[in-house]
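Appendix B, record 7
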Amino acid sequence: MTQDQRTQMDIFDFAPEIKPVGLEKPQVPAKTTTKPIKPAKAVQQDKSESFEINAETRIKYDGTLTPITEYFSANEISEGIVDKDGEEGKLRKITGNDLRLRMMDECGEMSEEEYCTMVLFKGPNLVVPTIHAKKRGAVLTRFTGIYASLEEASKDGRRNMYIPSADGCVYHIRQSEFFSVSQKAKIVPDTRQIVEGVKITLPRKIDWSFLCRFISASKFFAETYRVELYGEIYWNYNSRQYLLVFPQQVASLENVTPLEDDSIIPVIEEWVKVVEIHSHHYWEANPSKQDDESETASCLYVIVGTLNKLMPDITCRIHVDGKFFGVDPAEIFESPYDKKHSEDFSWLLKKVTIQDTPQKEEVL
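Structure tokens (predicted):
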């Protein structure tokens, strides 16, 4: 008779290139045998006919929203689950108690049916588990952890571990007594949603006069020589002022190249380059392939085009990790039409009768 052999694995097997040293297996606290005092009247679970869930249903528990698909497959939700107490192979609808049974592996306070009710709110399509006559405390933190590395997670060893990976994704490693599963996380509990975008943090907006001066100079070279023009805007940390500079450059119809040996501000540390700006004379201010290849430093890039129009086109963007992010020019430059620059027109209220003031959202 041969003896079965089983290979013991841990979470580092999901990243085989890592070989941890000296990590001890976390101690599992002993189960308590003390039973809480039961409430006088047990709360009944929702009946199956009223527990109508779908693939879009979410579970809200301890401030966290979790898709129902974390606990049931799409087929189980649409077709039903096997009725173990009924005919063999027969399917039935999912009930609140079925959801409780799936969740209790992560949330031990749901282990006793009489203490847990799954309340379904049909309007928002939300299931809210309610625990009765028990102090919940920091439930998720007992079973779930968010970690910076596999090493950190291994030391803590919780049932649900969320760990960032080199591919830019967060992975959910779920451990049970006999297996562990690693998959890309659909959500990460107790974290806030973050979106891509750009937030401009200039000391202050660049005065309109800088942009106006560059446009005027660009119009001169466009009308006289049919070439582009290049400039740079610097910020001085000591004087807290901006400066527009035109370095030595070679300009043509389709390109303009600043000379590398013409350093604008002669190695004075308090000056830092904020903006690189160039013109496209009468063409639109759309970045060219050459612009994409050149504009990869850590500063703002501005293109001014259609200089033959009364109001030229202006495009602003930044480059980060091989990707360009568009920026609203109004986030960089002050406008000559801002209140601080314009006349006080309150006197016109004597001549203008306001009938209705729409909300800002309606106008935009």
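Remarks on this record: The chain is about 15% helix and 25% strand. The CA atoms of residues 129 and 157 lie 26 Å apart.
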